[in-house]
TrEMBL record:
Residues 3-235 form the ABC transporter domain. The keyword Nucleotide-binding applies. Keywords: ATP-binding, Nucleotide-binding, Transport. Coiled coil: none annotated. SMART domains: AAA. It holds the Pfam family ABC_tran. This is Iron complex transport system ATP-binding protein. The lineage of its organism: Bacteria, Bacillati, Bacillota, Clostridia, Lachnospirales. GO terms for molecular function: ATP binding; ATP hydrolysis activity. Gene3D superfamilies: P-loop containing nucleotide triphosphate hydrolases. InterPro entries: AAA+_ATPase, ABC_transporter-like_ATP-bd, ABC_transporter-like_CS, P-loop_NTPase. CDD domains: ABC_Iron-Siderophores_B12_Hemin (cd03214).
């Protein structure tokens, strides 16, 4: 399922945070959104998953008009892994993941055996089998993040939006989560901070700076030392890692630049 967002402007407290951005994610493509702190990545994603209403612009997921549709219709096809996952009330891990099934249910419909099977499989995928009865609020940041991904898996979405999904995760789970998402084989738009992971997992990248997209293309087209220098104000060299064959980045310490 394609996502097409056109001419998006998002205004918060009378300031344009997202300034006329258009983005396309083709069916089954993994697209990364990169850019420095505060450039507007989360704001753009929130307008796509309907937490913030854009001042201007259209968003289509397949034929569905996301801006005009009610949240339940959107949540039947769009899964979200947000940046902050804290709750005021406590739920068990199983209850949290079962919430992923809600968009598929009729009013007051209970949880079926099939729902419990889906939840159990999702928890297994994120290595949290046995955590069903644990209280969500007592989990570590990384465990919480994996529960949120399990909830998105249980939702069986056709499209996934993720805001820094590897936040709080150690390297094993960073790789695990990105691999699971890749295997889901659905269109994905993810804000990512780690540029090497973005290069490895993303098919296409959009680079944001100060509320605008300043470049887009495949990771090798986009991730040049010149662009990274311009966007993040750091010096670096790009090279091919001799072991993995992947694009790698050597950040040069300030002392080497004198
Ligand atoms: N409700 C608000 N009112 C005013 N400004 C806001 C509001 N919410 C966010 N902003 C500002 O909008 C800008 C973009 O924030 P956003 O969270 O979208 O950036 P980001 O690229 O996701 O950053 P990070 O990488 O740090 O998560 C920031 O300067 C932020 O302070």
């Amino acid at each position: 399922m394609d996502l097409q967002a056109n001419n998006m402007i998002v205004t918060l407290s009378n300031t344009d945070i997202v300034k006329d951005i258009s983005i396309k994610v083709k069916d089954k493509q993994f697209v990364g959104l990169i850019g420095p702190n505060g450039c507007g990545k989360s704001t753009l994603l929130k307008s796509i998953y309907k937490v913030i209403k854009p001042r201007q612009g259209s968003i289509y997921l397949g034929d569905l008009d996301v801006v005009k549709s009610d949240p339940k219709s959107v949540s039947r096809i769009m899964g979200v892994v947000g940046q902050f996952n804290d709750l005021s009330f406590d739920f068990t891990v199983q209850e949290m993941v079962l919430m992923g099934r809600t968009p598929h249910k009729k009013f007051m419909e209970g949880d079926s055996e099939e729902d419990y099977k889906i939840v159990s499989a999702a928890l297994k995928q994120v290595s949290l089998s046995g955590y069903e009865n644990r209280s969500y609020l007592t989990l570590s940041g990384g465990e919480k993040q994996r529960v949120i991904l399990a909830r998105a898996l249980a939702q069986q979405p056709s499209f996934l939006v993720m805001d820094e999904p590897t936040n709080h995760l150690d390297i094993k789970y960073q790789l695990q989560i990105l691999s699971i998402v890749k295997q889901m084989n659905v269109g994905t738009l993810a804000a990512l901070h780690d540029l090497e992971l973005a290069a490895e997992y993303c098919d296409y990248l959009y680079v944001m700076k100060q509320g605008k997209v300043i470049s887009h293309g495949t990771p090798t087209e986009v991730l040049t030392s010149q662009l990274i220098g311009e966007v993040y104000d750091v010096e670096c060299e790009i090279y091919t890692n001799p072991i993995t064959g992947e694009l790698s980045i050597a950040y040069l310490p300030v002392s080497m630049l004198r």
